[in-house]
Design a protein that fits this description.
minor pseudopilin epsh fold, 3 helices, elongated, 4-stranded antiparallel beta sheet
Length: 208
Amino acid sequence: MTSATGARRPACEAQAFTLLELMLALALLAIVSGVMVFTVGQWRDDARLDEGLERFETALRLARADAARLGRRVQMRFDDEGRALSLWIEQDPAEGGQEFAPFDACTWDAELPGGRVIVRRCELTGPSAYQPLGAERLASANATGEPRDPLTFYADGSCDSAVIELTSTAQTDDRTALVELSGLGGTIRGQIFTQAAIEEYRQAAEGR
């Protein structure tokens, strides 16, 4: 190899330069890979709430459909921490026993949003309490109660009216999803709010 002046460059110098280039390339590759891993990980964390909300809404629709199809009440229950969701079905009066039993014959339990969201609140409401969906419903929620009432779906196609509050299992995602279920028509409305939107409404309400 020759230099710009035409002098021949020593082989060891050319080899050292090549190794330096290789080391720089590897360093850049490591940086880019790290950024990509962080970005993909963040995207997956953010996707938990979005996918969990979608699955939760689907579960509500399927529970309502099963209650009407089977002619028996179906219940959706939550554990004390709101991390686990279970399905129960009304027993045939002719069979006796307890009023509800685990819905073992459920064919869509794989659609449940387990591991993606936490049910922070499930509060039953009356038809007259079906209000416009907005961040104010979160900001004005009773912070001391946070009930997790079971949802009941009836054989006539109706269900309990309720407000359900969901958060992601990912600690890096501070957004909150709000689901409103209309018992009479089974209408489901879900929306995701940022923490900033909730705080903005709370501050505005305090300033009134």
